[in-house]
Write a structure and sequence with these properties.
Elements (H helix, E strand, L loop, with lengths): L7 E4 L1 H6 L11 E5 H8 L7 H17 L8 E2 L6 E5 L6 H4 L7 H15 L5 E4 L3 H9 L3 E3 L23
């Protein structure tokens, strides 16, 4: 796929806490992990809840994927997959600085997505988050934003109905 047709997905922390295998759900498209996401995941490593498991498992997958490589240029996630890049903090873009507090991690993630969209005008940059309010904030500054729905049922008619027909009894 030509580089300009590949999308860039910027992941929010809650996507990873929801699905530690989310890296493999974006096909040939590229993924950006803001450094803020790694900082937030660090807070969820300890504990016995599902989100704690997802935080630990994602970090293990990322560590084994990275090996000794640096993340500046990104690295391939796998065959027929895109690349993953970790983006370091950037100065708050002037379009965001007046409206969003520098204290909230979500706003740092939003800032990185915004910078990425400005730096890649020929590519679709999409913020992926489970947080509907965060999606509204992204849309308010002109970013594309989507819910992470890979685990949702696409066709309810394929689900088990609870009925079984037994013949010749």
């Amino acid at each position: 796929m030509p580089h300009h047709n590949k999308k860039i997905f910027v992941l929010d922390t809650n996507v990873i806490l929801h699905d530690s295998s989310c890296l493999y759900q974006f096909q040939e498209h590229d993924i950006i992990l803001p450094i803020t996401v790694l900082e937030e995941l660090d807070q969820f490593k300890k504990g016995n809840q599902t989100i704690n498991y997802h935080a630990r498992e994602f970090m293990r997958k990322l560590d084994s994927l990275s090996g000794v490589h640096l993340f500046e240029e990104g690295m391939s996630i796998g065959p027929n997959q895109g690349r993953i890049m970790i983006k370091l903090e950037q100065k708050f873009h002037e379009d965001l600085a007046l409206n969003f507090s520098h204290q909230k991690p979500d706003h740092h993630i939003l800032n990185i997505a915004y910078h990425c969209a400005k730096e890649n005008p020929s590519r679709q940059v999409i913020l992926v988050t489970k947080d509907s309010n965060f999606r509204m904030k992204a849309k308010s500054v002109g970013l594309l934003a989507e819910d992470y729905t890979t685990d949702h049922v696409k066709d309810v008619s394929t689900l088990y109905t609870g009925h079984r027909l037994e013949e010749h009894i």
